[in-house]
């Protein structure tokens, strides 16, 4: 802003409009005061400078003069932005209510008369002031009575620069929204218009004019909708009630209502019905306005999609938001891979194993497509050798694991007639040299800290962490078996836990130490949310379902933070510690195998190295080893 030039333009307009001398002098005093303030700070005009100056004069000048000078400053901004000052902002001696056209004044009077019973005199006066300001803006846009209101007019009102403080702007918009809602209830305009005024919804409604050309073309192709926009809006409350039945509270319910209302307004404004594809295109376009909450919005929309398909939600489910590489393969690849995966499912392979097979087979097929192959009939030893050279992994172990799966896939292709070569699998080397690793266990000091943590911490998550870690340290249970622990698995009377181990499918019954039982009991009674789920360890926040992922490892890290820095220092260290302590306490190999649920004694042998006391008894003399004690070094 060229401050002096803008001030001169304002003063010239005041003189042209024949504003009285006292008002013009008051304007001049205001602008001179602001100019002196800017020179003292050696800054030009800005919003920050304006607010700082206003804050100063409020402590020095009478309240009435401050209120008038605030208006003068916004007149200055309007002159700089538009080249003039609107009459309603110029003539401060005439109220905005008096400036309203007759039709708008009648509509406002009806609304104010209805509010008399629930507003104080002062609140009623402020309502008239702020509503009048909002209606004057609408009148400037060509909206002359309540029946003329449209989405477009409201959006233009929300985008209008009002040359006033943020608080005043909020009061104008909020009171205008209440008036429009009042007439919406009477059927003179749409109730939905008032929803647009919500400052937490409006920024996320979205506009087709800002959508990408690709998404616009996709929207044009969607003709079959699931339901109308109004039917979609009516489904929001039932969906939120379903969320509540699954234990969702607070933020999630609040966000679900806002997200779906924003989607409804987008559909209604642009005359769309509801379809899942429309919903996801809309989300892809508006997610940049959501900040860090976009993940939460995406989750809510996915839950709603499931609700429309099944009438319910599955909070424990893991949703796929983007197509995986397998889905993008051509049919001839997907058909063969799906056949192998079905075979592995019939063999009762774990879900993680199935996923590993799909990824490795997809990797192989992606290689074939990238190199111009169009059928498995084109496979040959040369192609497999080329794949072996091309495929890269961070470790030899990862490369070997991938090749094991690809070899199985090649055998499957030969068995099912996809290829005429029956020995392609031998072209891939899938073995690695045996490795001996140093066994990592928890120290006695760390075990003592775990016990101290259990005694001193009583928050729900802390109680859960203590119980989980003690199950690993004192009973040697794997993380997957701890998370799958159910109430029927614990025999409190006999102090036993009976489970079928997920990895080996072996049923074992283990004695439950008193401290483990106490930790589990403390969690169940004082830390576990009240819910009907059968699993003992559940989420601390809704939905209260079974825990997944690396919860056990994170529990260990919260108790022993230094374990984060240990390579491979996950939760399995508790199982190794348990086995090592059994051996140190003179348990036999068979006893350790039974406690761990192992069938092969070789898996226990590695723990013998950590039994220092008995390892000393196995020492060999130098003489028996053929090493002489004479001669020394040359």
Mean pLDDT: 87
Radius of gyration: 37 Å
Largest sheet, strands/sense/barrel = 3 strands, antiparallel
Proportion in helices: 55-70%
Strand order of the largest sheet: 1-2-3
Task: Classify the beta-strand content into a percent band.
Answer: under 5%
- Computed structural class: mainly alpha
How many separate helices? 29
Any idea what the shape is?
elongated
Low-confidence stretches: none
Oligomer: single chain
Summary of the model, kept short:
With 634 residues, the protein is an all-alpha fold. It is built from 29 helices and three strands.
In words, what does this structure look like?
The protein is an all-alpha fold and 634 residues long. It is 57% helix and 2% strand. Strand 2 and strand 3 (507-511) form a beta hairpin. The model has no long low-confidence stretch (mean pLDDT 87).
Task: Outline the fold blueprint.
Layout: H1 3-16, H2 21-41, H3 47-58, H4 63-82, H5 87-90, H6 96-99, H7 102-115, H8 121-140, H9 151-159, H10 166-185, H11 213-221, H12 229-234, H13 236-245, H14 251-269, H15 276-286, H16 294-310, H17 331-346, H18 351-370, H19 381-390, H20 396-415, H21 444-456, H22 460-475, H23 479-483, E1 490-491, E2 496-500, E3 507-511, H24 514-526, H25 551-559, H26 572-584, H27 589-596, H28 602-605, H29 612-616
Antiparallel strand pairs: 1-2, 2-3
């Amino acid at each position: 802003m060229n401050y002096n030039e803008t001030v001169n333009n304002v003063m010239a307009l005041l003189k042209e409009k024949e504003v009285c001398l006292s008002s013009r002098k008051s304007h001049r005093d205001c602008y001179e005061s602001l100019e002196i303030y800017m020179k003292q700070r050696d800054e030009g005009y800005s919003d920050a400078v304006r607010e700082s100056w206003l804050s100063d004069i409020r402590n020095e000048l009478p309240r009435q003069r401050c209120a008038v000078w605030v208006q003068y400053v916004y007149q200055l901004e309007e002159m700089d932005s538009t080249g003039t000052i609107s009459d309603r902002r110029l003539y401060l001696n005439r109220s905005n209510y008096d400036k309203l056209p007759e039709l708008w004044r009648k509509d406002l009077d009806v609304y104010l008369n209805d509010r008399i019973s629930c507003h104080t005199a002062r609140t009623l006066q402020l309502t008239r002031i702020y509503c009048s300001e909002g209606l004057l803006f609408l009148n400037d846009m060509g909206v002359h009575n309540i029946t003329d209101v449209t989405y477009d007019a409201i959006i233009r009102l929300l985008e209008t620069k009002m040359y006033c403080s943020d608080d005043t702007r909020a009061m104008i918009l909020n009171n205008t929204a209440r008036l429009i809602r009042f007439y919406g209830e009477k059927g003179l305009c749409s109730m939905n218009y008032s929803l647009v005024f919500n400052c937490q919804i409006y920024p996320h409604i979205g506009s087709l004019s800002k959508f990408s050309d690709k998404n616009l073309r996709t929207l044009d192709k969607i003709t079959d909708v699931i339901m109308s926009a109004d039917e979609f809006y009516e489904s929001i409350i039932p969906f939120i009630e379903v969320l509540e039945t699954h234990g969702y509270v607070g933020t999630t319910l609040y966000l679900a209502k806002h997200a779906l209302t924003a989607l409804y307004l987008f559909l209604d404004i642009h005359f769309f019905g509801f379809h899942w594809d429309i919903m996801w295109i809309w989300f892809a376009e508006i997610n940049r306005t959501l900040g860090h909450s976009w993940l939460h919005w995406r989750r809510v929309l996915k839950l709603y999609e499931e609700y429309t398909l099944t009438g319910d939600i599955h909070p424990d489910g893991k949703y796929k938001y983007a197509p995986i590489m397998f889905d993008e393969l051509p049919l001839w690849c997907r058909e063969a891979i799906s056949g192998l995966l079905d075979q592995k499912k019939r063999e009762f392979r774990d879900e993680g194993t199935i996923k590993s097979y799909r990824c490795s087979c997809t990797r192989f097929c992606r290689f074939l497509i990238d190199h111009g192959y169009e059928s498995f009939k084109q496979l040959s030893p040369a192609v497999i050798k080329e794949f072996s050279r091309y495929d890269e992994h961070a470790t030899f172990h990862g490369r070997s694991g991938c090749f094991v799966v690809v070899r199985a896939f090649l055998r499957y292709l030969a068995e099912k007639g996809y290829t005429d070569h029956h020995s392609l699998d031998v072209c891939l080397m899938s073995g690695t040299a045996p490795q001996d690793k140093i066994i990592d266990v928890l120290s006695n000091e760390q075990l003592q800290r775990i016990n101290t943590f259990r005694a001193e911490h009583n928050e729900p998550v802390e109680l859960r962490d203590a119980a989980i870690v003690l199950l690993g340290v004192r009973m040697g249970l794997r993380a997957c078996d701890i998370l799958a622990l159910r109430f029927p698995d614990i025999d409190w009377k006999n102090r036993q836990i009976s489970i079928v181990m997920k990895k080996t499918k072996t049923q074992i019954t283990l004695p439950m130490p008193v401290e483990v039982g106490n930790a589990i009991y403390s969690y169940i009674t004082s830390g576990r949310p009240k819910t009907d789920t059968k699993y003992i360890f559940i989420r601390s926040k809704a939905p209260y379902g079974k825990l997944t992922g690396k919860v056990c490892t994170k529990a260990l890290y919260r108790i022993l933070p230094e374990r984060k820095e240990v390579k491979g220092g996950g939760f399995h260290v508790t199982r190794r510690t348990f086995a090592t302590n059994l051996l140190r306490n003179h348990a036999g190999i068979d006893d350790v195998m039974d406690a761990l649920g192992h069938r092969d004694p070789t898996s226990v042998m590695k723990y013998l190295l950590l039994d220092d006391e008995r390892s000393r008894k196995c020492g060999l003399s130098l003489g028996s080893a053929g090493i002489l004690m004479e001669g020394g070094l040359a």
